[in-house]
Structures are given as C-alpha cells and as structure tokens.
UniProtKB/TrEMBL annotation:
GO terms for biological process: DNA-templated transcription initiation. Residues 187-218 are annotated as: Disordered. Gene3D superfamilies: RNA Polymerase Primary Sigma Factor, Winged helix-like DNA-binding domain superfamily/Winged helix DNA-binding domain. NCBIfam families: sigma70-ECF. Keywords: DNA-binding, Sigma factor, Transcription, Transcription regulation. This is Unannotated protein. The keyword Cytoplasm does not apply. It comes from freshwater metagenome.
C-alpha cells in the first residue's frame, strides 16, 4: 500500500509533470485516493517512528493527509494565488507539521497539520500580495520588531512606543516606525498571546478549521474561544476575527482590516495589539492553554 513520496517543499515530482489528462490538483487527489485515512493509534505509531528518524513513516503520514491540503487550499481561492500554487504552499505546511508533530500532546495530527497548512498558505498569499516584495533582511527586521512589540505590550499592558521598541531591538526609533508601516501581513499563527510558554493564536483561534472527515469541528474549545473574545471591546473583537479569518471570513491584512472597519492601518494594528494583550491576561485563555 505504501508508495514512496519524494519529500520536497513542493508537490511530489510526479504531480508536477505535464499532463494532458488532468491538472496537478486532480493528480494529487488521485494519489491521495491511494491512501486510506489513518486511525488515531496509527498516527501515534507513525509519529513515534518519525521521531526515531524513520523516513518511510514520514512519507506515509504525509501521503495519508494529502486531501487535507486540498480541502484547506480551496478556502483561499480568489485571494491572489491559483489552486495549484495554493496546494504547493499547503504542502510546505504539511511537511513541516509531519516534522514537528509531538504525539505526546494527545491531539490528532490533522488538527495540528491544519495550523501549519493554513500558515504556509497565508504566507504564500502575503508574499504575492505585496506590491514590492520585501528583501529577506528587511522581512527579518520586521519580524524582530513585531516580536519585541508583542512582548513589550504583554509586559507593559499597553502599546509600546517606538523608543521602547528601539531600545530592545537596537534600531533607531524612526527605523522602527518605518518597519512597522511596512508590515501589514496576515497575522502569524505563531504569534503568542502571552509569554514564550503561552499558547499561540493558531492553537486558540484555529480550532474550527474543517478537515475532509470533519474531524476538526466547532467543539467546546471553539465555544470557549468565542466566550474569551466576547470579553474584548467590540472593535478589538472585530479586528481579531478579521485578522485571523474567523466565522467564514478569509484572513485579512492590517490594511484590509482597517478598510473594513473604517480606520487606518496603524489604528487596526493598535487595536489588534491591545486585543492580544487583553487575551494574554484572561483566565479563560490560560485555562484553554492548560487544557491543550
């Protein structure tokens, strides 16, 4: 039953070969049909084998979840990338999930992989959406500023000033301002709502992402998330819902969020940061993290 898959950060090589019969996505779906869905105990066994360096186990885990990539990619059609490109980005996330999955956490691989697939697709869309793609060094600087700003906001319980961020990053205050203006990316699923040990927003806000088998649905955790967001002011709650693509919305950039709410990009970013800071202090969110 097992068929070797060439593990790359793109579609398998045979999926990328020209075909007059079907497009790459159709070929991928036909390949996926060769693999049945894994039972929880089978995922567990494969994860343990992967941890020991078993590449065939990694290949089988990826092959058995190809349909998940297509299922999620379809939700992002019409946002700037064709379906084949969306699937290729999603494959990056699926492979990464197979490499990082920790079977000790007790949740299904499909739940965990959904977070990584969506993040990879969002990043691909982000790169496409930029009028001028940021050089790698500038993108790295914006991520550093974002990370420091989030840490300071959680620590200070308010938005940090450019001077405070500059003191932590080593940049000049005017450079901090410039980098923050450049950054209007869809929110990262890796962003944490508190300190380094707290849950990521992807873990808390993405629990309702569907899988082909409807294994990731609106459950009690999702209801708890809604209750937690319900404690935010209406404007901040609206920003979080738009930025993270909740309730049927696609993920929005800060600029798109600002336009939807009738505020500036900078104001949308400030509202988001305040919301994340509030969420970090909520007992309900802490309880969700403990239960994860």
């Amino acid at each position: 039953m097992e068929t070797t898959l060439n593990i790359t950060t793109n579609l398998p090589d045979e999926i990328r070969e020209p075909s007059t019969v079907a497009d790459p996505v159709d070929q991928l779906l036909r390949r996926a049909a060769q693999y049945r869905l894994l039972r929880p105990h089978e995922e567990l066994e494969l994860a343990k084998r992967i941890e020991r360096g078993d590449l065939r186990a990694k290949e089988l885990l990826i092959n058995s979840n190809l349909r998940l990539v297509v299922s999620i990619a379809r939700r992002y059609q019409g946002l700037g990338l064709g379906m084949s490109d969306l699937v290729q980005e999603g494959m990056i996330g699926l492979i990464r999930a197979a490499e990082k999955f920790d079977w000790r956490k007790g949740f299904r691989f499909s739940t965990y992989a959904t977070l990584w697939i969506r993040q990879a697709i969002q990043r691909g869309l982000d790169n496409t959406a930029r009028t001028v793609r940021l050089p790698a060094n500038v993108a790295q600087q914006t991520r550093k500023v974002d990370r420091v700003a989030a840490d300071l906001a959680a620590k200070l319980e308010r938005d940090p000033t450019a001077e405070e961020i500059a003191a932590e990053t080593g940049f000049e205050p005017d450079e901090v301002e410039r980098l923050r203006k450049l950054d209007s990316r869809p929110a990262s699923l890796d962003a944490r709502v508190g300190n380094e040990d707290s849950a990521t927003l992807g873990e808390l806000l993405d629990s309702n992402a569907p899988t082909p088998e409807d294994e990731v649905g609106r459950d009690d955790v999702e209801r708890q998330i809604d209750l937690a967001l319900g404690e935010l002011p209406a404007e901040e709650r609206a920003v979080i819902n738009l930025r993270f693509g909740r309730h049927g919305e696609p993920p929005h950039t800060a600029a798109q969020t600002g336009r939807r709410l009738g505020v500036s990009t900078a104001e949308a970013q400030r509202l988001e940061q305040r919301a994340l800071t509030r969420l970090a202090r909520l007992d309900r969110v802490a309880a969700l993290h403990e239960a994860a």
